[in-house]
Amino acid sequence: MKQVLNVEIKNYNITITDDDFSKTMEELNLLTASQKRLFIVSNKVFKLYFDKLGLNKEEVLVLPDGEKNKNFKNYIKILETAAQKGLTREDAIIAIGGGVIGDIAGFAASTYMRGIDYIQIPTTLLSMVDSSVGGKTAIDMKNAKNIVGTFYQPKAVLININFLKTLNKRQFKSGLGEILKYAFIEENCNYKQPLYLFEYLTLCCEKLFSQEPMTIMRVIEYCLNLKIAVVNEDEKESGLRKILNFGHTLGHALEVRGKYRMFTHGEAIVQGMFFVLNWAKKVELISYSYHRLAIELLNKYGFKEQKFKISELIEIMKKDKKAISDKIVFLIPCDKKKVKEVKFRPEEILEMF
Ligand code: GLY
């Protein structure tokens, strides 16, 4: 099976397939036929897939996984390797791994010689449904996630769902967290037709957990259709694209506070979703019945609400790049499958909770 989606703004394709890896590599070879290549590969993927992908060690730089490795040191390592291997403006960087690898490789590609091609081959569910598409590239600084980065679209995204067979359960569930996000923002996305993602996710939970290929492919396709519609309208996040940060304000703070070890990204942003759903119910932006359905959906996917001392997270949220002057920015549900941006001073948030 194969699906091809197109991102109009920079006219690049996203292929979603469950074909053999050899087909994905054939497609990559065609896309890069005349280019010198540098593959940035996560260490886990390198161990599991070096032979299956038929990689050439000469073209590969292996980097460790994990958010703490999305740093300046590894960014410079990529640039130095690209220079050593003599990559020019005509050449390409290929990221094979999860969001950390895709973000740092994309950032290096966007700055090396003022920008060369890069291709994303995401290997985690989270990177398949979100970070590999849309051109956000970044590295982190202490206590601030994605604080240095660019908007720089890839030349192509090649998604092969067979990578998910070796993804551990917790990371798979983390991807489900990001998928659930799209269910709450579908109405904002202005996609040309209703996808009924909220309803579909309510129905297909068991099939998704058992990794039924058709269901996985369809869910990735639905999420990306919504994301592409948003990115086509607002590539640089000056307006609409902010909705993709639903659940992320509190989520990022939890990730930072837990030093990226306590919560996966998906677990953290789902806690952020619980927080704003409860807030929206409290201030009567959403109905009790929608709130109940929303919480039931999150629970169905095995996510349970945890309680946090909001005061402990405020300082971190103030440093988030979504914060504007002295205000913290949240996306809060305001109707069924719809969210809106609200800005509050830290004291106002403390008064409310
Ligand atoms: N992950 C959110 C975005 O791409 O805008």
Commentary on this structure:
It is a single chain. This protein is of the alpha/beta class and 353 residues long. Helices cover 46% and strands 19% of the residues. Strands 1-2-9-6-5-3-4 form a seven-stranded mixed sheet, sandwiched between helices. A two-stranded antiparallel ribbon has the order 7-8. A hairpin with a 2-residue loop joins strand 10 and strand 11. The site of glycine has 5 residues, from loops.
Q: What topology does this entry show?
A:
Elements: E1 2-7, E2 12-17, H1 21-31, E3 37-42, H2 43-53, E4 60-63, H3 72-84, E5 92-97, H4 99-111, E6 117-122, H5 125-131, E7 136-141, E8 144-151, E9 156-160, H6 169-183, H7 197-203, H8 205-209, H9 213-233, H10 248-257, H11 265-282, H12 288-300, H13 310-319, E10 328-335, E11 338-344, H14 346-352
Parallel strand pairs: 2-9, 3-4, 3-5, 5-6, 6-9
Antiparallel strand pairs: 1-2, 7-8, 10-11
Bound molecules: glycine.
Glycine (GLY) is lined by residues 130, 134, 136, 241, 244.
List keywords for this structure.
353 residues; alpha/beta; 7-stranded mixed sheet; 11 strands; 46% helix; 19% strand; globular; binds glycine
Kindly state the number of beta strands.
11
Oligomer: single chain
Model regions low in confidence, pLDDT < 50 over at least 5 residues: none
SSE order? EEHEHEHEHEHEEEHHHHHHHHEEH
- Number of DSSP helices? 14
Short structural description:
It contains 14 helices and eleven strands.
